[in-house]
């Protein structure tokens, strides 16, 4: 894939594969672009600024815009449609639960999860997955959108700004969610396809951590945005590189590490969760939800085998 030439100087923490993943995601997002204001603290200036066409907003997806992991809900939908077997669903559910609870990347887990997802879609047409994604959104995702975060996104739209999802989920499913929410588009993980058929490989790497920051940087350069006037929203400390790029970072339903970091830097915080017990013991509420979902799936699958 030819270099896009959009990038400005970047931090050295980004690997070459992160840069490639970010560029690929930004390119895919631009190709697929589709043409109740949030509460404000008394001390905050008016934001977002009406008519500021140099500003945009970037929203993480999992546990920021939507409760749970999009890839897990997508996996449930594919399993329902017999894309893979029962043992694969149980393994996939455990990988997602472990990742959300631990809050850190284990190279072997990440590689295994990536290879599993790619093997599932290999040989299928991109158009087929996009159509199925529409159905899965209605089945599993629509009711899991956080109203508070949705209102924040709408405030940017009402101010005349573009709003993008930025997620490690496949760009096809991310695009479906963005379109359904009336957002501008989505930056997501790009799987390689030839003649409209998935090859089972990625372009770069999953859009996670530093790769998200690279995607935002690339898109901002291409769109002529001023990042100091842009906003970014996330629940995870893994997205600190992306949040640090913009002038208006928000911690939404933050995990313990992001909450601490946000307080130290005086970033704005919003928490739309009702269960605070998890936070008191230092476990992200999102992780508890993922474990519960993974455990329930494993139990259900075990019962079905009997």
Describe the structure.
The protein has twelve helices and eight strands. Strands 3-2-1-6-7-8 form a six-stranded parallel β-sheet, sandwiched between helices. Strands 4-5 form a two-stranded antiparallel sheet. It is α/β, with parallel strands linked by helices and 306 residues long. Strand 6 (231-234), helix 9 and strand 7 (248-252) form a beta-alpha-beta unit.
Short description, anyone?
This protein has 306 residues and is an alpha/beta fold.
Order of helices and strands: HEHHHHHEHEEEHEHEHEHH
Give me the secondary-structure category: alpha/beta
Morphology: globular
Question: Which percent range fits the helix content?
Answer: 40-55%
Specify the biggest β-sheet: 6 strands, parallel
Beta percentage is 5-15%
Q: Indicate the mean pLDDT.
A: 78
Number of strands: 8
Order of strands across the widest beta sheet?
3-2-1-6-7-8
Distance between the termini: 49 Å
Low-confidence stretches: 1-12, 34-42, 276-306
User: What is the number of helical segments per DSSP (H or I, 4+ residues)?
Assistant: 12
Radius of gyration: 19 Å
Give a topology summary.
Elements: H1 16-31, E1 56-60, H2 70-80, H3 86-102, H4 107-121, H5 126-141, H6 147-158, E2 162-170, H7 171-180, E3 185-189, E4 191-194, E5 197-202, H8 210-223, E6 231-234, H9 240-245, E7 248-252, H10 256-265, E8 268-270, H11 277-280, H12 285-305
Brief descriptors of the model:
12 helices; disordered C terminus; 306 residues; alpha/beta; single chain; disordered N terminus; two-stranded antiparallel ribbon; six-stranded parallel beta sheet
